[in-house]
Automatic annotation (TrEMBL):
Domain of life: Bacteria
Domain POTRA span(s) in chain numbering: 31-147
Protein's UniProt name: Bacterial surface antigen (D15) domain-containing protein
Locations listed in the record: Membrane
Signal in keyword set: yes
Stretches assigned to the Bacterial surface antigen (D15) domain: 555-755
Keywords assigned by UniProt, alphabetized: Cell outer membrane, Membrane, Signal, Transmembrane
Entries under Pfam families matching the protein: Omp85, POTRA
InterPro entries given in the database record: Bac_surfAg_D15, BamA/TamA_POTRA, D15-like
Organism: Aquirufa beregesia
Amino acid sequence: MKSRNILVGLVIAQALFFSCTGYRQFKFTEYKVNRIDIQGNKLISKEDLRTNIPGLKESYARIFSPKTYVFFEAKRKLKDSLGKSPALIQLFNTPNPSLNKPYLDITKEAIYKYYRNNGFLKNEVFLRIDTINKSDKLVNVTFNIDENTLSTFSKKDSFLVDNPQLGKKIDAYYAKESVIANNDRLNLELLKKEKDNISHYLKNQGYFYFSTEAVGLKLNDLQDTSLLRVGIIYKIPDFKEENTNRLYDRLFRFGKASFVNNQYTDSSNIGVLNTTALSKLITFKEGDLYSVDQLNQSLQNIYASDQFKSVSIKFDTSSTRVFPKVELVPNEKFNFSSELGGSVFRGIPGPFLTNSFKVRRVFSSLDYLDFSARIGFEAQAGFINTDQARKNLEVNLSTTLNFPKLFLPTNIKQQLGSLYASQTQIGFGYDYINRPEYLRTNFKIFQRYQWRKSPFKTFQFSLVDLNILNTNYPETATASAFKSYLEELRLQGNNLYRSFNPSFVSSIHFTYAYRSFLPSNELQAGESFQIGLESGGSTLNLIGSKKITFIENMLGSDQNIQFYRFLRFNFDYRKYKMLGLHRKSQVAFKFIGGLAYAYGEENDYQLPYEKNFFIGGPSSLRAWKPRRLGPGAYNSITNLIEQPGSILLESSVEYRFRMFQLFGTMNGAFFIDAGNIWTFANSKGEKDGYFAFDNFYNQIAVGTGFGLRWDFSYFLLRLDLATKVINPAKPVNEKWVLSKTSFSSGENPIEFNIGIGYPF
């Protein structure tokens, strides 16, 4: 009611003001644009046109009349010319523009070119100016568009290449590497990308001086005069400038690389560049054909050593050789950083301090040693009384020694071939947690090999990953209640108690990851795939007792030390496809799975708790609480207990689309999630959670919902509202629960999920 009264007051005040003599007698001195309209567009939206063409960004249709805006514009000009301050009323500070026919013609041409660049080669644009009232000098502008038919690439292309040897290279590129596919919508931006790709491809074949200026791409309008199916004429060379380098078709080989220290300040800890060590990071050999990718790969290897602030390159050339000269600016030997922060949980502040110290060139000219320490005194919910918050002390210490090479036998490294940013890491860590319920420590030793075969293919292999975990309980009522809680879970089939028993967990693991794009908040097409293999307790197979005596003696616990033997496999596949004429919406698909099998009879065929699979939560099945779904058709009596499993199947499909601008980009999403976890029949869990080939598909959980993604470029805030569709924990005839959705805490309440970044 209050806002309504304010609006009525504004209308009355406006009517009184506009009835004054000065406003009534005010006349336009020149024609003004009342509105700019777009008509005739079908396949390209008005939003796209207004976004991409400056002259169409505003429609100029406003709340008040154009006369109001122009009247205040004249008032402001008068005050400014007299040196007075601008008018206080800023509501009318964007007047309607003057009619400018040459500028409108430029906008018309921009619309035509935009349509042509997007495949409408025969589009036509008509400009119409309608006078509303000659006495008021006010006009409406309309751009009427005849899109005509959309053209596509036919791939019936012609080639005009002067050098026969170069022509064979172009044929090879065209057959496998071309970015233009048959039946693709004609897009002139793709022609520019095709030229860039041809240049890059040939620079990898030894053509050092080949550039995009040598490539001519022209639409072939002779084969199909209707321009519905358009081929391309490839012409090489096609130089437009007189002074362009004409050595485009000459092959070059690498000469010897040299290194230059570009450190201008006098610093005693920099030292002299070790050219022998640096040469080992170079992936090409003297005499190899020039390759821009090999060169970039070498520079990345040097930069990944973390010894240099900057890495740049210059070239000296002879008639047949390219001599790279790598200029380096070394980093300081010592680096220290410290961060003080905090969190708030249920109104309780929790400070933390993180320190890191890096020492370079410890044992060689290219290694570095990382020390990090984090101390936090933060609040968390209690295990027993989850509505109570307590402060917990957590300390994390780690040390890692990094070498920019793989310490592997020579024959294995030769089989791996040239690599990007290869690295060997050796380290150890110590974690300490002090909660009212328990005191927990974890001492770990690890070794890792990391390398990349390309910017998109990453490998990691670890021969040593040892963890020694121990838990002590204080003599308090809270600790006693927690131990009783763990025992209660054990009787229900939940093996959380194993996480708090003294344990020795060792494993060998391998991970391969492929990603066809760089991670970004921007919607983009691509796919990713990751596979992981892990063998736990492998060396215990060589010991009859399946235990290591000195580990038991070191822990000195009155409990039996758990030694685990297990195998674990997991995979993760994701696909992203752009939709729409301008590829502004996206369908994202995820399918992940896993299998973990404990074969240690001495541990009742149980996995370390951290090696189980879990499902549910903001980045999983969003209609269930985090890690609470399953296993199988098991119906837990409470949702406070995490549900582990040995078998995982999970999939999601999400349609993402743009909505509007609000201090960033607001995007929307519709999604469907499906999946579950199961246990093996030899486990100690409930039979409802066992996996069976003839019945597992009846236990697939399904959820759906709608989400908002607020994209601020530097980070993305996400809100998802999800509801269950099929609940496998329900009886056979009651699994469909979508109709029981409610915002209250009923049988199928809507789950609210808040997160940072996309769920996948």
